Amino acid sequence: MALIVHKYGGTSMGSTERIRNVALRVAKWVRAGHQLVVVPSAMSGETNRLLALAKELMPQADGPEALRELDALAATGEQVSVGLLALALQAQGVPAVSYGGWQVPIRTDSAFGKARIDSIDDTRVLADLAAGRVVIITGFQGMDPDGHVTTLGRGGSDTSAVAVAAALKAHECLIYTDVDGVYTTDPRIVPEAQRLTTISFEEMLEMASLGSKVLQIRSVEFAGKYRVPLRVLSSFTPPDIDLDEEARSGTLITFEEDEKMERAVVSGIAFNRDEAKVSVLGVPDKPGIAYQILGPVADANIDIDVIIQNVSHSGRTDFSFTVHRNDYARTMALLQSQVLPATGAESVSGDPKICKVSIVGIGMRSHVGVASTMFRTLSEESINIQMISTSEIKTSVVLDEKYMELAVRALHKAFGLEQPAAV
Ligand code: ASP
Ligand code: MG
Fold this sequence. Notes:
Elements: E1 3-8, H1 16-31, E2 35-40, H2 46-57, H3 64-74, H4 76-91, E3 96-99, E4 106-108, E5 117-120, H5 123-130, E6 134-137, E7 141-143, E8 149-151, H6 157-167, E9 172-177, E10 198-200, H7 201-209, H8 217-226, E11 230-234, H9 243-248, E12 251-254, E13 268-272, E14 275-284, H10 289-299, E15 304-309, E16 316-324, H11 328-343, E17 347-351, E18 354-360, H12 370-380, E19 387-391, E20 394-400, H13 404-414
Parallel strand pairs: 1-2, 1-9, 2-6, 3-6, 9-11, 10-12
Antiparallel strand pairs: 4-5, 7-8, 11-12, 13-18, 14-16, 14-17, 15-16, 18-20, 19-20
Bound molecules: aspartic acid and magnesium ion (MG).
């Protein structure tokens, strides 16, 4: 008998029919003797629908009072899900009880729309489990120190589930979703992409931050911090498939590096079209310049990703960085109005049509020549690299957006990722 946390995404909860399937699956685990805590998302499309209603009444809801109401509103999607799932379980004769985040409580800070979990009280949940009930807890939401309902940011139910699993020291947190695991890259771009049976937590962290949308990045950070064993698997297998088979399916996110030693050097190719590049040209090359450029950008709460400063020629240099595409116009305006006059740079330029493609693998730590294989592959396809950034376990390149799919396909092939991983 083990304590297991299941998380079901919006698609898995998308209709009463699907909720019944979730209940059948959960019931199977209960009948096998496990204690179950289930964290569902809102029914698919529901959070968008609620936020669109809000927009009709207040197009720019960004003041603190409005943000509070947006969270109170958005959190109702999950409230519906937990109630329906508890009923579906009870209808099958499985004792179940549902709780909103505030009832557990899941305590968060007061950053409405992107709250962070501070603590989870396990008393009530453990008592219910001991009494033989399945406990169903809303994803995505919590309660701040003043008792206001908060939400954790879009996709936040993943983080709720992992946090609940950490608090309860669950044996495993199973994330049931509409894909059957984590792939070497997006199968919509590379049909030969393979499902990974395991991926290290560090690789998953890179994949999530580099644009692979399987898990909310904060859930991966949480899993790493508290070492929560995490598995991503399909909720579309028949609910009555063999439990042992189901428990081994999908992709396991591991913490043991040794297991990976024999595996491919590169585990996956991630990409991201959401970035834009800006450059400040002809900046005087003297101490403090990077701060003079990036300080105002940071003060405006704009996140910066890849940064490049060139070697200077006759005392001047070029400085480029990438930002989220949504922040592009704001960043350009800020560079023109503040940075240009303050630094005495010659001009600013920008390009919102770029993409970032990255190779990820913990094997890169101990293998040389990985980056050069990447660069050779791109040069063979005549793709120009605009920026490069590296960490211990990834190399990213910034490219013209029109080359993205070509680059991903070529790299996937060059690193032999279309071969099923040896087990
Ligand atoms: N329902 C929320 C959203 O759509 C949270 C989640 O699904 O994880 O973002
Ligand atoms: Mg999700």
